[in-house]
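User: Could you check the structure of this?
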Amino acid sequence: MNNETLSQLEQLIDQLISRNNELQAEVKSLTEKNGQLIDENETLQLEVLDSEEKQKDTSSTLSSLLEKLQSAQQAN
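Assistant: Sure, the predicted structure tokens are below.
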């Protein structure tokens, strides 16, 4: 190999190392973002479950009140 070829090879290796470092940093960033999104998703799922439970409780209360009202109307 001549000096020019070695120089080009060295430049390419430097570029590959640099690109590899960039990609590793990007992977780390995306991994962190993925973790945050997983946490956010879990929080949202818990909020939905809580909301559904509150909706069921409200529906049950409304049904009970409706039954009382219907019973009161029938008694009159």
